[in-house]
Amino acid sequence: MQSNQPQFIDVSQLQVGMYVHLDLGWMDHPFTLSNFKVKDEEQISIIKKTGLKKVRYDPKRSDCAPLEIPANKPIEMVSVETNKSIEATIEDKPTEVVSKNERLKELHHAINECEKKFINTSNIARQATRNILTDPKAAVEQAVLIVNDMVDTALMEGDVAVHALNGNRSSDANYVHPLNVTVLALLMAKSIEMSKEDARLLGLAALFHDIGKAEISDKILLKKEPLTKSEQTHYEQHSEIGARMAQEAGLPVRIGKIILQHHEHADGSGYPKHLRGEQTDQLARLVALVNGYDNLCNPNNFATAKTPYEALAHMYANQRTKYDESLLKRLIKSLGIYPPGSIVQLSTGSYATVISVNPNKPLRPFVMLHDPLSSRHEPQILDLREEPGINISACLRPNQLPLDVLDYLNPRKRISYFMDADLSHNNNEPT
Q: Is there a domain that residue 142 lies in?
């Protein structure tokens, strides 16, 4: 009897009308989405050229069953719910068995420590960006303190990962846009092996990139509707104002340049000078990229917010000409196919929030599971590397969740990120 659960099949079994999931990043296939119904033979040919040997298909959403397995090519068709999936043969085996209860305690401890550090850092970041006008010396000293700490974490430790804060200690009120941009920028610094000196300049520029908004009317800054032409012109002045303020605060000249250029675009559509590509500082191009990503996820108007998954897909599909494409690909690789903060449905039917990416296995992140039997304050956390029989089936928006799941997972309106050691460091399993 044919199972209604998603199944792994060989690519030779594909036919038109099947609903498939491609376990690939956006850069590795030309389709708009990674899951879709196959509409013609050309799409099947393209899927085969990606190098995938197996794909998942969803019987419920398919118009037909897989083709028969060729007699000369035996293949095991495996339900993704079983514990004997294809991936089980390639998953790393733990060198030391740790009970799940002990592992869960370790994970909760690591997440709580990360959240405590995040709250402290977000408070200092808020003070530093607020005080740049009234007490620039103290503001810069505060900023240097937290940026140096983050640079050390990013560059000096082994694997680091970005965590989406969704615990019990912090809230939407702890969201600080400049800190999010700084965290994401320094994660990128790690991925491109940036020098410590440049990373410190980058961190300070990212933290202070919006200081010019101190001289922009709150009426404009907090407006949820689109700005009028005159309002937009006034708003765009914050880049030049910020560069001037950076100079007055005694920050290095290059930081002022990055602040000035953080809204320039590779295609010349940015401001204030409409510079293109190489005409801008590389660090400015990096800040422009992560600033654009965070603005998509955390806009003034919550109704227009994109999920992290949607934001990266949108940037890659529709905004590649605006950004340095090589940096955009690095961002997608660093945040993973399912970025922290994403709400997902697992192959078991359960819902979860992605809290951290496994740097070496982007398809198998850490997730916080909706489990009515577990306390909301001590939720079940799964490391999907350790669950070879469970896969992510879909990324969802909050309004697609059942009400009880929404209440339990309690997704933030604002997504706050913080960088810390990869959670797998708290495991005895090698990465």
A: yes
Closest Cα to residue 236, out of 207, 269, 203, 281? 269
For the chain, what is the domain count? 2
What are the pLDDT tens digits along the chain (431 aa)? 455 666 888 899 999 999 888 877 655 677 756 677 899 999 999 998 888 888 888 888 789 999 987 655 544 444 444 333 333 333 443 433 346 667 777 777 778 888 888 889 999 999 999 998 899 999 999 999 999 989 988 887 656 667 887 766 677 777 899 999 999 999 999 888 899 999 999 999 999 999 999 999 999 999 989 999 999 999 999 999 999 999 999 999 999 999 999 999 999 999 999 999 999 999 999 999 999 999 999 998 888 999 999 999 999 999 999 999 999 999 988 888 899 999 999 999 999 999 988 777 878 898 999 988 877 777 888 889 888 889 999 999 999 999 999 989 888 888 898 887 656 555 444 33
Helices (H), 16-80: 41-49
380 domain residue, yes or no? no
Q: Read off the CATH number of the domain in which 184 is found.
A: 1.10.3210.10
CA distance 104 to 109: 9
> Residue 188 in contact with residue 327, Cβ under 8 Å?
yes
Look at residue 157 and tell me if it is in a domain: yes
What's the predicted TM-score (pTM) here? Answer: 0.75
Task: Please report where in the chains the tokens 């599909």 appear, as a residue.
Answer: 317
Amino acid at 100: K
- Domain's final residue, options 335, 354, 371: 335
Task: Indicate the helix (H) or strand (E) that contains 259.
Answer: helix 253-261
Question: Distance between CA atoms of 409 and 300, rounded to whole angstroms?
Answer: 23
Q: Residues 6 or more apart from 262 whose CB is under 8 A from it?
A: 205, 209, 239, 284, 287, 288, 291
Distances (CA, A) of 213 to 196, 242, 259, 277: 28, 7, 12, 25
